[in-house]
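Morning. Coffee machine broken again, so started the prediction first thing and wrote up yesterday's gels while waiting. Chain of 188 residues, entered below exactly as on the submission form.
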Amino acid sequence: MKTPGNNTTRGRGLIRNSHGNLAEFAPAFTIFIMAGVIPLICSLIIPVRFCIAQGLIDQTTQRLSRCEKMSLACKIFEEDEQWVDFLTLCGLKTKDKHLSILVVGSSDQGVEIEQPAVIDQRLLPAAGSPSHSYVLRLKANLEMKPVFASCLLPIPGVTTPLKVALKSDRVWENMSCDPETRQYYVNE
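Came back before lunch.
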């Protein structure tokens, strides 16, 4: 029974306050946020960052593989920090980056040559029969910043940094010789 100055109701012998809903709702809402919304946000942010990083590294490798000379590709790789700056804006810190050329023969045995270096004469294309494929390889070790800064539970990518190693390969496109030096552009 309700009286004019009392906000309580009687039901089955218990007195219940009608304003107690907030005390019941707040813990349930907190558990929902902690167990449902935060993992959902993290499961969306980490793959998006990974895809952005892989796409940027693929684009950079493709741009470098279209350079006229290998020395020019190495120079652009060292001097152009635009893709590294964009990765930093996306929450990815570049720990180290590495450019090399992979020479793959007919037996699928590859030789990775660090750049800048001179490719051995026996690995260069012969005058009439190019028996090797030349692949430009870019490797980058990245560290993905955590989505939430917390030291309660160490979860890589969510509360602690996530280390990612990415690699991109593109075929070197200019297999011609320099008319002045008689050297292959891939070897200059």
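The longest strand covers residues 92-104. Going to sketch it on the whiteboard this afternoon.
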